[in-house]
# Entry
Amino acid sequence: VSLATNIKHIKMSAELAAAQGMPLLQEYYENKIAEEVGHDEWAASDLAALGQQFTLDTVEYPLEPNLALLIANNEKALKQDPRLFLVYILFAEYLTVVAGPECTESIAQRCGINKESLSVITKHAELDKDHVAEWREEVHSCQIDLSGLSEQVFAFLEETMSAYNAFAAGLVLPRGTHA
# Structure
């Protein structure tokens, strides 16, 4: 999900947490926003580096349908309960830490893209290691009990993983076809 969309979702989650009387969760999300500042500059730098290596298509394509589904799923979940967005944050950070290094290596080998042009992935993978390791403590520090949400959590995770898998599968298909 784009960095701007992610920040939008975190802001929405903070506002909903405040409205629902969860000040520690609101504070957690507000701190998360501060952590994300500047990460869009990594992506811009990567695009500039890729532009030096390749001729980039300047045509703006519509949002890939499976990515749009992933974004809509996040918005639906956080509107249902702002605590659910914690689940997406863990999913995204865990996936980045676990798959990020292998993903960048594969892209470099198979596509001939310099790993330096993938800093948005490699830097997130490095930074998010601590978040994943400390996630349980972070949730407890917010005094958030997810135990009553197990059905919603698993449904949300299933929808998120399904949308992400469809999106990732679509990355290897020719433009205009969908998984």
About this structure: Residues 32 and 132 are 13 Å apart (CA to CA). The chain is about 75% helix and 0% strand. The mean pLDDT is 83.
